[in-house]
């Protein structure tokens, strides 16, 4: 029973991280109608920047803030320089560009920081809570991860559903011609969408980095898992697989869940079930 509780709590923490990555992907989709396959590379790059700040003597908080700020700037630059030129082209063009951007960012990170994985500090203690005579695998740092992701998800939901800015961002993504006629600066809204998505991805990178070794390709599996819609259920499922069957089967389990999700939603993970109104 204790093992089951440990795996469940660990799955919640892991699922929260996957949810942060999924938030970044969905945020770009909702605000620009582009699936960004370079998201994993972008959050890896900003996490390396945070690591460099901390290694140079900066505090964790400073590294955390620098990662978010650099992610915001990187997202805006990518939209302006890479995506904007193909804005009017078929959607597949932007997808191919993000795949190329992924390769470029990974190569640049390898040249700057090398390919040797390195550790990354946690915000809080990694020692599990003690309940009676039992030490749980759920730590203060896991609590921090879950609370931060919930707060970010709530803030983004409020942005898109409860503010005029969110309405303009959705209008720019789903009906840009109409939005322009209504006075919306569509270009700025698209740039802001990419910037916020990259910031959210940077948050996910900093949160997950203490549990993995930081390297140019460290976050690729996390990005793949982030594409699965049922992120919390996925986190729990992979935690059970790892705990009971071993970590070697985790990628296979993730692939199996992804196939099941695609069978249930054959029209795509981000497709709408009904007409959206902006």
Layout: helices, strands, pairs:
Layout: H1 2-32, H2 39-55, H3 60-83, H4 91-113, E1 130-131, E2 134-135, H5 140-162, H6 164-174, H7 176-181, H8 186-208, H9 220-226, H10 231-245, H11 250-264
Antiparallel strand pairs: 1-2
What does this molecule look like?
The chain is mostly helical. It has a single domain (2-123, 136-264), classed as ABC transporter involved in vitamin B12 uptake, BtuC, CATH 1.10.3470. It has eleven helices and two strands. A two-stranded antiparallel ribbon has the order 1-2. β1 (130-131) and β2 (134-135) form a beta hairpin. The longest helix is centred in the N-terminal third of the chain and has 31 residues, at 2-32. The chain starts with a helix and ends in a 14-residue tail after the last helix.
Proportion of residues in extended strands = under 5%
CATH architecture: Orthogonal Bundle
The count of domains is 1
Classify the fold: give the CATH topology: ABC transporter involved in vitamin B12 uptake, BtuC
Order of helices and strands: HHHHEEHHHHHHH
Helix-residue proportion:
over 70%
What would you call the shape? globular
Radius of gyration: 19 Å
Query: What is the CA–CA distance across the termini?
Result: 48 Å
Low-confidence stretches: 266-278
Total helical segments: 11
Major pleated sheet: 2 strands, antiparallel
Structural class: mainly alpha
**How many individual β-strands?**
2
By CATH reckoning, the class would read Mainly Alpha
Strand order of the largest sheet: 1-2
Rounded mean pLDDT is: 80
